[in-house]
Amino acid sequence: MTTEFHGIIGYTITPFSQDGEQLDLPALGQSIDRLIEDGVHAIAPLGSTGEGAYLSDSEWQQVAQYSLERINKRVPSIVSVSDLTTAGAVRRARFAQQHGADAVMVLPAAYWKLSEAEILQHYRTIGAAIDLPVMLYNNPATSGTDMPVELILRIVREVENVTMVKESTGDIQRMHKLQLLGEGQVPFYNGCNPLALEAFVAGAKGWCTAAPNLIPELNLRLYDAVLAGELEQAKALFYRQLPLLDFILKGGLPATIKAGLGMTGLPVGEPRRPVFGLDEAGQAKLQALLDGLRQQR
Questions:
Q1: Which residues make beta-bridge pairs with 80?
Q2: pTM as predicted
Q3: Degrees (nearest 5) of the Cα angle 277, 294, 255?
Q4: What is the edge-to-edge ordering of all strands in the sheet holding 206-209?
Q5: Can you say whether the dihedral through the CA atoms of 111, 158, 45, 253 is positive or negative?
Q6: How many CA atoms are closer than 13 Å to the CA of 35, on its beta-carbon side?
Q7: Are 84 and 109 in contact (CB under 8 A)?
Q8: How many other CB atoms are found less than 10 A from the CB of residue 30?
Q9: Domains in the chain with CATH codes
């Protein structure tokens, strides 16, 4: 449990055939290679961008195994193992560990609203089933569950291998509270693109983002500027990329990132239904944003 995660942690997409029925693993491999060659510090397969919730168990295992083999320890990996049931998440976490993941990410996905005791037990059970570090993931927009900072810190204290937190509520005060109440001892990571600059200033160790699929250089330069203490440079870099960060978040990450990859020469299909691909107006807007950023280089 010695892997340290920092910097730009790139989400991968899950490519499909044009009808959305078949996995396109070679395209996944190309997308992983691109992220690594472009300099991301870690890769996170099968999260929201990777449409993990829309895959069958067999597909999930294929994507997890293929991703980990393709990454091949070139950078650290953190596999999202979230599932509606604790047993399902345990199966996925064990599978990820068996195939070489460096850590797993756990969102308390819920149909029924979970009590704090149920959330705590969920993490306890998963933590006890594996020897990997666990990143606790708080994203009420996709899970339906919003964990207060006090509960998050209780889980970190009581579950030994829950060692880091990904905060995606879009509320910068959550990060300040994590830093203060955690006394600076709990590594946290930003999962909300438009908060990238503020999150780093608040003490985030990294930024979990799909944006490096499209603009890796800007993402990495922002992180480097923050590390170097060059706040004015960091602000300038952040504001350059903010319109695109806003667009891909509001347009839906699977739809916007997949469309953008197609525009950069890597067709990866559309999202799986019920999610639609990016419409014609959205594609025109995305193309204009990407063209504008290229012209500013």
A1: 105
A2: 0.95
A3: 10
A4: 42-44, 7-11, 206-209, 188-190, 162-167, 134-138, 103-106, 78-80
A5: positive
A6: 32
A7: yes
A8: 18
A9: 7-237 (3.20.20.70)
CB 136 within 8 A of CB 119: no
Please report, as a single letter, which amino acid is at residue 184. G
DSSP 218: H
Q: How many CA atoms lie within 13 A of 194 on its CB side?
A: 10
> Which residues in the chain belong to E strands, given as ranges?
7-11, 42-44, 78-80, 103-106, 134-138, 162-167, 188-190, 206-209
How far is it, in rounded angstroms, from Cα 218 to Cα 240?
A: 8
Fill in the amino acid letter for 155: I
pLDDT by residue for the chain (297 residues), tens digit each? 567 899 999 999 999 988 778 999 999 999 999 999 999 999 999 999 999 999 999 999 999 999 999 999 999 999 999 999 999 999 999 999 999 999 999 999 788 889 999 999 999 999 999 999 999 999 988 888 899 999 999 999 999 999 999 999 999 999 999 999 999 999 999 999 999 999 999 999 999 999 999 999 999 999 999 999 999 999 999 999 999 999 999 999 999 999 999 999 999 999 999 999 999 999 999 999 999 998 776
